[in-house]
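User: Hi! I'm working on a homework problem where we have to compare a predicted structure to a textbook description. Could you give me the structure for the chain below?
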Amino acid sequence: MYLEGKDWSRYTADFKSSAFRLELHSVYDMAGEREEFERFLSGERPPADLSYPWLDKVANGVRAGKSFQRVHVVRRPLSDYLRYEFEWGYAFNVKAGEDVRILDLTGKPDPGLPDHDFWLFDDATIVRMLYRFDGAQIGRELIENPNIVEYEHYKSAALKDSVPFTEYWQS
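Assistant: Happy to help. Predicted structure tokens:
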């Protein structure tokens, strides 16, 4: 089943205890980020009070006892988009309470990760994120009857050698 709008939003808001996100792409083409990305490319630093809805969702969830965790798999050299995402996104996500981690596989073998991004909610629900080759998101698919053991393996493999974002990225 494909998820859009409120159907999708409820997954990132209504989970009970944990949300895990695996990101594999070096570029994401998100329409809502294009203006900020251009500002980043021109050398602008993010405003100290940068705010966007995800930060509120994370902060409110953490206050309610929920955990938000993400691992982004990277290889050097980092794309302009990743540098933007680190400075204009992850630095603020961490301040809001999200556990953002980086798995740098530069010169290392793949530890057995899937070929797609996904969310794992409450260790029970999988939403596969669908992207075109250029990083444009084309959908989100709720996996019916997922193999949770397989996705738990992906999660463990991604976490095993990942490091906290603040340790990886010293801006």
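For your comparison, note the following. The longest helix spans residues 80-96. Strands lie at 18-23, 67-74, 99-104, 117-121, 125-131, 137-142, 163-164. Good luck with the assignment!
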